[in-house]
Design goal:
Layout lengths: L1 H20 L4 H25 L7 H19 L7 E2 L2 E2 L8
Antiparallel strand pairs: 1-2
Helix pairs in contact: 2-3
Length: 97
């Protein structure tokens, strides 16, 4: 029992600290969302402008969101899990089939 306690005690001390670092204030979450939106506009905005949308307009914003969503689906799959598609697992332990 003592070796298990010796192994588990650092974990028990670290868990509350880890739980507190995961908390964010509403202002921090809003700042993170703002940074994500600015990143999307920087990445996809030029393409939408080249497609003929006026920068900053509602159709331009819709284009930015649509291109970002399309990229996410291609990268992560339709359910948000890389390599997983409904009815078929690609990769993983058994390899692709």
């Amino acid at each position: 029992m003592r070796p298990l306690l010796r192994i588990m005690s650092p974990l028990l001390v670290a868990l509350p600290a880890l739980a507190l670092t995961g908390c964010a204030t509403p202002q921090e979450r809003a700042a993170q969302k703002q940074a994500e939106a600015e990143q999307m506009m920087a990445v996809y905005g030029p393409a939408c402008s080249r497609l003929g949308y006026a920068a900053g307009s509602d159709p331009w914003r819709n284009c930015v969101v649509n291109l970002s969503t399309k990229d996410d689906i291609q990268r992560y799959g339709p359910n948000g899990y890389p390599g997983y598609y409904p009815g078929r697992w690609r990769g993983g332990f058994w390899g692709g089939w």
